[in-house]
Amino acid sequence: MGIKNGVVLVLSGPSGAGKSSLINKIKEDIGDYYFSISTTTRPMREGEIEGVHYHFVTEEEFKKDIEKDNFLEYAIVHGNYYGTSIKPVKQALSEGKLVLFDIDVQGNTAVNNRLGDITTSVFITPPTLSELEKRLNGRSTDAPEVIAARMSMAKREIQRISEYDYVVVNDDLDEAAEYLKLIAKTARLKKSNEEINRFVQQWEDI
Amino acid sequence: MGIKNGVVLVLSGPSGAGKSSLINKIKEDIGDYYFSISTTTRPMREGEIEGVHYHFVTEEEFKKDIEKDNFLEYAIVHGNYYGTSIKPVKQALSEGKLVLFDIDVQGNTAVNNRLGDITTSVFITPPTLSELEKRLNGRSTDAPEVIAARMSMAKREIQRISEYDYVVVNDDLDEAAEYLKLIAKTARLKKSNEEINRFVQQWEDI
Q1: Which of B189, B190, B192 best tests the A interface by mutation, with the highest count of A CBs <10 A?
Q2: Which residue has the higher pLDDT, A78 or A199?
Q3: Which domain holds residue B116?
Q4: Closest Cα of chain B to A8: distance in Å?
Q5: Angle of helix A173-187 relative to helix B173-187, nearest 10 degrees?
Q6: Largest Cα span, chain B
Q7: CB distance A91 to A99 below 8 Å
Q8: Is residue B55 part of a domain?
Q9: Domain with B182 in it: what CATH number?
Q10: Which has the closest alpha carbon to A12: A82, A79, A80?
Q11: pLDDT band at A206 (very low <50, low <70, confident <90, very high)
Q12: Does B199 touch chain A (CB under 8 A)?
């Protein structure tokens, strides 16, 4: 329909579901995309880079951005603020990009409220809770209390997976990647309400 | 997730949009499917075959099936009854098939009310109204008053395309077929509420 229009792909799911591995596997095949970097007040961990993993800010800065309505969505998780700035998302959409979000269930609701017409949402989950625990214990990065918090959050989030357009069970990484690739390619075909209205208007005129 | 679960793909759009050509182009690539045959009271046309193009029945038979709640959806269009019997659809879904419906906007609403969780809907449209008129005039099958009725129905239906998950503009047949193929393959990944509930239940147990 002529004008470039970006779309949104929301990826949710517990840490340990394999989101990063999946994105790495499909990123060559999904065309021009923008991976939304969240802003957070949580302390930077070893190996993390500002502007790559997160934008790290103080609670004061975060609260100022909330006041200015600069966030598409934000939430407090385990005592820390996490949010998505609107500006770079709008920019990427205007460039016709596929905008990827790695956000939680609350974030998905917020994004759908604002950009529902162009949003496709996927919940990525390990096959079972015990498999999730195994994967989290296998990573040396997290303290036991962090793992416990992640497990209890996963239990809460799995109750809301019917809010997602698609659920991908990451049992076999290659198969899950194939599914996610299909979903991402099809997400590109979503049209905004604005685009649909423009099409309907010109449909009878020409 | 183990048990076979069928899904639904609704195709709507005016006669002349190219739905049949598109289905022919993609049918080898979409796996095991069942094309739902509508039941109608309209007279059989030359070249049409009972059980292939439609199930042709009398108005009396049709009304009896309405009373028995045998239709997934039905409507009266240009004075004739058209409907979709539930039984073969249920059978195909239990066999894990992709069930294709060629139905109108009202039918899409009805199917989404009953099977929304496993349904993906696509509106296929010619690029413009004048292109539609050209295509309809190019076919020798329809009388002028039939063409006029189709045109005015198309004008009404195009107003409701935002009710569809996807809109495919059939300008270039090959491109439109590629899009439809992607949508059909991704439609396979939809999970029923029942399947989701089963997954959530066993997720914590194993």
Answers
A1: B189
A2: A199
A3: 7-36+95-194
A4: 14
A5: 130
A6: 65
A7: no
A8: no
A9: 3.40.50.300
A10: A82
A11: low
A12: yes
pLDDT band at B3 (very low <50, low <70, confident <90, very high): low
> Is the pLDDT reported for residue B51 higher than 60?
yes
What are the Cα distances from residue B122, in Å, to A75, A195, B106?
35, 16, 13
Q: Do A128 and B203 touch (CB under 8 A)?
A: yes
Residues 6+ apart with CB under 8 A from A42: A54, A56, A78, A80, A81, A82
Touching check for B182 and chain A: CB below 8 Å?
yes
Rg, C-alpha atoms of chain A: 18
Q: What's the per-residue H, E or C state across A24-80?
A: HHHCCCCCCEEECCCEECCCCCCCCCECCCEEECCHHHHHHHHHCCCEEEEEEECCE
Tally of structural domains, chain A: 1
A155 in helix, strand or coil?
helix
Whether chain A has a CB inside 8 Å of the CB on B201: the answer is no
Here the tokens at position B178 are 């590629």
pLDDT digit string (tens) for A133-189? 999 988 777 788 888 988 999 999 999 999 999 999 999 999 999 999 999 999 999
Please check whether residue B159 lies inside any domain of the structure. Answer: yes
A2 within domain boundaries: no
Tokens 């989101």 belong to: A19
B57-82 tens-digit pLDDT: 999 999 999 999 999 999 998 799 99
pTM: 0.91
Tell me if B16 is assigned to some domain: yes
